[in-house]
Amino acid sequence: MVSTLKNVRPAARAAGTVDSFLESIGPGLDKGELPARIFGDAEVHATELDRVFARGWAFVGHETEIPKKGDYVLRPIGEDQFIVVRDEDGVIRVLLNNCVHRGVTLCRAEKGNTSHFRCPYHSWVYKTSGEWMGAPLRKRAYKEIDAKSWGLKAAPHVETVHGLIFASLNPDAVPLDDYLGGMRWYLDALFNLNESGLTVLGDPQRWKISANWKSAAENNIGDAYHVPSLHRSGEDIGIFPDIESGGAGGACRHLYFDEGHGMILSEGFLPEPMWHKTGFPKDIAATFQLDRLKPEQKDFLESYALTAGTIFPNLGIARVPASAYAGAPPVIFTVLRMWQPCGPDAFINWNWILGLKSAPEQYNKDAYAASLAMLGPAGVFEQDDSVVWEGLPAAGRSAFSRNRRMNINYQLGLEGMSEYEIDSKWKWPGHATTTALGEAPQRAFYRRWLRDMTTS
Ligand code: FES
Ligand SMILES: [Fe+2]
Q1: Which ligand is nearest to the CA of 225?
Q2: Where are the beta strands (DSSP E) in 190-250?
Q3: Residues 122-132: pLDDT tens digits?
Q4: Which of 98, 100, 121 should be mutated for ligand 1, with most atoms under 8 A from CB?
Q5: pLDDT for residue 143
Q6: How many angstroms separate the alpha carbon of residue 131 from the centre of ligand 1?
Q7: Atom of ligand 1 nearest to the CA of 119
Q8: Residue 24 half-sphere exposure, CB side, CA atoms within 13 Å?
Q9: Residues 430, 255 contacting (CB under 8 angstroms)
Q10: What burial class does residue 277 get, using C-beta atoms within 10 Å of its C-beta: 0-12 exposed, 13-18 middle, 19+ buried?
Q11: Closest atom, ligand 1, to C-alpha of 104
Q12: Which residue's C-alpha comes closest to atom 1 of ligand 1?
């Protein structure tokens, strides 16, 4: 497994210094300005681990990865590693992967099935629920131990939404539904297409990118403006049907939420008559049971099924078309992406490709291949994005940029700046815009980020 830890911890923070810096950001954000420093600063990053990742809700995997009792996978929340396990009662637990005897990393395999976890150091043993179960020479060595107090540290909240597993490390966290806000309505539509639902197609891929995790989050939330520019080669080599239609000038719009989540929605992406209104091929769409949804959700799906978005802070969703190779017909694929922070200037991109249980095996294989060609570790779009994001942490840690307060520009779509307005006729949850020629979702993301970062 890729090493996930860096020596940047909250204790290293110079108390007060970072807080006064963070307090100074708000007025600039209202004008579409954010200091470059927030993308390359160790103190800001350490504060994020405390106030964003240890406080909100984090995506840790999909239920189909751990279908049986005893199944487990190792997953990060912030920079900490957890065991996500289905215990012997079938309950999903999220357990810190550190033995409470001396803190040793407990589970060394990145996935598997087990009846218990045994520490390699002194062989303390824990149940899959995390409870303390025993130790060598127990009757002589631990006559008086209070077993209930010495279980593994567990995330206090774990919830699922249509197979997506979320955990919160915050005992006082709001319920997941409240955290998701209006985004929940759209997740219900996108991930509840039929009773059999979605399944992971193999393990998530992981690769490390030399950039700040927020660059991926704010890109996926709706940076349409870069698509025809940076990803032009996708059309040139024939793996993306119409690059302009995927950009800010196409039939796209933004949707964003005060909770910091957002999406880009696309209509009319694909050539008729092969495609159903949901964006899927007609034979695949025939397996959907859209009457399970509210009529308005069905209406939404049949208008804007193709989308990418971010759930604050670091979960990405994409359902878009691509071709596995030049000339192949485009296939709709669905991926979940999680941007695991590794210090301020690196993150690990986790990439789950999902298939429809109701689809023929070949369709899922084609979607898998198309997804890899576009957004996999060597995907054409992925390479484009990850290379350009590398510059920002350098600007963020530069003494020159810090002293001169170099700001990054988020002014696209501010009032009067572009053809971009709030759509007052939008019928469904969230704030929708008339085009995608703006950065309202990014500003909402950073407003949420700043709220969390300035609440101690
Ligand atoms: S450190 Fe785990 S049993 Fe001692
Ligand atoms: Fe991109």
Answers
A1: 2
A2: 198-200, 205-209
A3: 999 999 999 99
A4: 121
A5: 95
A6: 14
A7: 2
A8: 11
A9: yes
A10: middle
A11: 1
A12: 102
For residue 319, the CA-to-ligand 2 centroid distance in Å is 14
Q: Which two tokens stand for residue 168?
A: 């919160």
| Tokens read off for 444 | 């909402």
Report cis status (omega within 30 of 0) of the bond before 429.
Answer: no
What would you measure as the largest C-alpha separation in the chain, in angstroms? 77
Which atom of ligand 1 is nearest to 122's Cα? 3
| Centre of ligand 2 from the C-alpha of residue 296, in Å | 30
Provide residues with CB under 6 Å of ligand 1: 99, 101-102, 104, 119, 121-124
Q: How far is the CA of 255 from the centre of ligand 2 (A)?
A: 18
Asked whether residue 11 carries a pLDDT value surpassing 60, the answer given is no
Q: Residue 338 belongs to what H/E stretch? A: strand 331-341
249 φ/ψ angles, rounded to the nearest 5 degrees: -85, -5
Q: Ligand 2: distance of its center to the CA of 63 in Å?
A: 28
User: Residue 350: what pLDDT?
Assistant: 98
Please name the residues in contact with 251: beta carbons below 8 A apart, sequence gap of 6 or more: 245, 266, 267, 268, 269
d(Cα 25, Cα 352) in Å, to the nearest integer? 34
Cis amide leading into 175 (omega within 30): no
Per residue in 141-191, pLDDT (tens digit) is 999 999 999 999 999 999 999 999 999 999 999 999 999 999 999 999 999
424 CB burial (10 A radius; 0-12, 13-18, 19+): exposed
Q: What is the pLDDT of residues 207-220, one digit of tens each?
A: 999 999 999 999 99
All structural domains of the chain: 58-168 (2.102.10.10), 181-453 (3.90.380.10)
Taking the CA of residue 103 as reference, the ligand 1 atom at the shortest distance is 1
Nearest CA to ligand 1 atom 4: 122
Cβ atoms of 407 and 28 closer than 8 Å: yes
Rounded distance from Cα 93 to ligand 1 centre (Å): 21
pLDDT given at position 276: 77
The pair of structure tokens assigned to 360 is 């023929």
| Protein residue with least CA distance to atom 3, ligand 1 | 122
- Partnered with residue 275 across adjacent β-strands are 281
Q: How far is CA 176 from the centre of its chain?
A: 15
